[in-house]
Structures are given as structure tokens and as C-alpha cells.
Design brief:
The chain is of the alpha+beta class. Helices cover 17% and strands 22% of the residues. The N and C termini lie close together (10 Å). This is Lipoprotein.
Length: 208
């Protein structure tokens, strides 16, 4: 399964408007043969001229998160690539990042072009949640470790592979604060054009 998108997680708010119409009574005598005209619905409310959509969150700073990033990844090894993605995706640093999307952007070197483009351009509209704000108050960061999971394991093909990892994420602060520890399951689908090319992830899912 994959994240994300948290691997890249963009929250979209949808506003639903309910139109109410008034039901008029029919005062036409029954023996007149006339057909009652439907009552005219009340005018709908005019849009709020003062409303402006929320601005996307700014992207974070360049740099290496406190917990570090995978190095020397063998890109012709599907397991190595998938593990690097799974770990990097959950490696946050609030001194650099404004949201989890910034961690996801650090995975683009291992993503297929279409997914890399989506991840690179993602800018959440929702403000960080309480957990993120608390972590930021402590100049917090996460450490992530991935363990291979073999549920529904499928045989690799020359140009297609599936990988699944359990990712344990610890939340820490630079002031020695300790936050929660969570475990997530990340599922990653990888492809390549031929067996001599590097593996790239084109689909990801994540679940707790």
C-alpha cells in the first residue's frame, strides 16, 4: 500500500448548497379545469463577495532532515528503491517542512515522471493539524524505519514489481520531547522500461 501521497496528501473541501423551494397551495376550484401554476422558488442567496479561497501552504526549505535520508540506493533493486521511498516519505523535520508534502517531495528522484510531477507540485490548502503544530513547537522531527511485509506478495516481472513495508515512525523534539510512535503500511508498485533500467514507483498507497 502507499501514502501517501499522507504520500502526498492534499485535502479538498467541498461545499454543498441545498436549494429550498416553497410549496404553494392550489386555490383553483377543482371543477374549473384549470391547471395550477407552480410557485416561483425564492431567489438563491448571492455569493459572498468577501470570500476568498484559502491560499496553498508555502513549500518548506531546502535541506536534509535531522534524521537523514537514504544514501547509495541501488536503483536497479526494487526492494531498495521501495524502502528508500517508504522511509523518506515519513521523515519529517518541522525546522524545514511546512507540511508532510515536503517530505514527499524528497522522494521524487525514485518516482515515475507522472507521479513525480504530481508530488513536486502538491501544495496543501489545509493548515497543519494539531499533531504537526505540537511537533513544531518542539522543533520536532521523525525517524522512520521500514520492515518488509509479505502480504499478497506477487512475483516480480522484468518490468514490474510490488513491495509492501511496515513503517514505524517515531516523533521526537530537539528539546528531548518525545511524541507518539505510529506504524503504517506502505504499498508500492514499481515499473521500469526494461531490466537494465532503474526502478521507479508509479503508484503508492498507505494505511494504518
Amino acid at each position: 500500500m502507499s501514502k501517501r501521497s499522507r504520500w502526498a496528501v492534499v485535502v479538498t473541501s467541498t461545499t454543498m448548497a441545498v436549494a429550498l423551494t416553497a410549496c404553494g397551495s392550489d386555490n383553483t376550484p377543482k371543477d374549473s379545469g384549470a391547471t395550477a401554476k407552480p410557485s416561483t422558488p425564492p431567489p438563491t442567496a448571492r455569493p459572498n463577495a468577501t470570500y476568498s479561497p484559502p491560499k496553498p501552504l508555502p513549500k518548506g526549505k531546502e535541506g536534509t532532515p535531522k534524521a537523514g535520508l537514504p544514501q547509495g540506493v541501488d536503483e536497479k533493486d526494487a526492494t531498495a528503491v521501495a524502502e528508500a521511498i517508504a522511509v523518506t516519505d515519513w521523515t519529517f523535520d518541522t525546522d524545514l517542512d511546512t507540511s508532510p508534502s515536503d517530505a514527499q517531495r524528497r522522494t521524487t528522484q525514485w518516482l515515475a515522471d507522472s507521479l513525480a510531477k504530481d508530488v513536486a507540485n502538491a501544495q496543501p490548502l489545509a493548515q497543519p493539524d494539531a499533531a504537526w503544530r505540537t511537533m513544531a513547537e518542539h522543533h520536532g522531527y521523525t525517524t522512520a524505519t521500514a520492515k518488509r511485509a509479505y502480504d499478497d506478495q506477487q512475483m516480480d516481472l522484468d518490468t514490474e514489481a510490488f513491495r509492501q513495508f511496515e513503517v514505524t515512525v517515531k516523533t521526537l523534539g530537539r528539546d528531548d520531547w518525545k511524541g507518539p510512535t505510529d506504524t503504517w503500511v506502505t504499498w508500492i508498485h514499481l515499473t521500469r522500461t526494461d531490466k537494465d533500467q532503474p526502478w521507479k514507483a508509479d503508484t503508492m498507497r498507505v494505511a494504518k
